[in-house]
From TrEMBL:
Alphabetized InterPro entries for the sequence: Anti_prolifrtn (IPR002087), BTG (IPR033332), BTG-like_sf (IPR036054)
GO biological process: negative regulation of cell population proliferation
Residue ranges constituting the Anti-proliferative protein domain according to the UniProt record: 96-115
UniProt name for this protein: BTG1 protein
Source organism: Orthonyx spaldingii (Chowchilla)
SMART domains with a match to the protein in the record: btg1
Alphabetical list of Pfam families matching this protein: BTG
Family membership: Belongs to the BTG family.
GO cellular component terms attached to this protein's record: cytoplasm; nucleus
Domain of life: Eukaryota
Polar residues composition bias: residue spans: 149-164
Disordered: annotated segments: 143-164
Length: 164
């Protein structure tokens, strides 16, 4: 898993970094050259951060560690990349959603804007060796569980405390 693991993360990391870059671009006021720099710095920071925390055989393992989160605190990886192009945390808070969660896992990158926004998948690829039908099935139940989970405040409150 040595150097191979790094290569495997490429798509997931570039998807996640491109997404955050798109959010910055949409907010306006950041030049294309800065955005390109930001995206590269963010990818580099994520690669470094995830290096020993990427488990394609157990995609959910380490998910919390890899999760990129803005929640009244700036995610350190985004903050670091923004610092490289001279964007302060204050400026980032103006440009990016104040509540953003981005999950970067093997075979899937998804995000949620707002504490009870719905989860949107940015990238998904079948897991090698997993039966496609079985995977689809588990995905649907996961979505259902998410929907029903939202109606119970205690459950979503637990989720919040765990992630912070």
């Amino acid at each position: 898993a040595g150097s191979g693991a790094g290569a495997d993360m490429r798509t997931e990391i570039s998807t996640a970094a491109a997404f955050v870059t798109r959010l910055l671009r949409a907010a306006g006021g950041v030049g294309e050259e800065q955005l390109r720099c930001f995206r590269e710095c963010l990818q580099e920071a994520m690669r470094e951060h995830y290096k020993h925390h990427w488990f394609p055989l157990v995609p959910s393992k380490g998910s919390g560690y890899r999760c990129i989160r803005i929640n009244h605190k700036m995610d350190p990886l985004i903050g670091k990349a923004a610092g490289m192009i001279g964007l302060s945390h204050e400026r980032l808070f103006q440009l990016l959603p104040s509540e953003l969660t981005l999950w970067v896992d093997p075979f899937e990158v998804s995000y949620r804007i707002g504490e009870d926004g719905s989860i949107c998948v940015l990238y998904e690829s079948p897991q090698p060796g997993a039966k496609a039908a079985k995977q689809l099935e588990s995905r649907t139940s996961c979505k259902e569980e998410w929907r029903t989970g939202r109606s119970s405040p205690s459950k979503s409150y637990n989720m919040m405390t765990v992630s912070s």
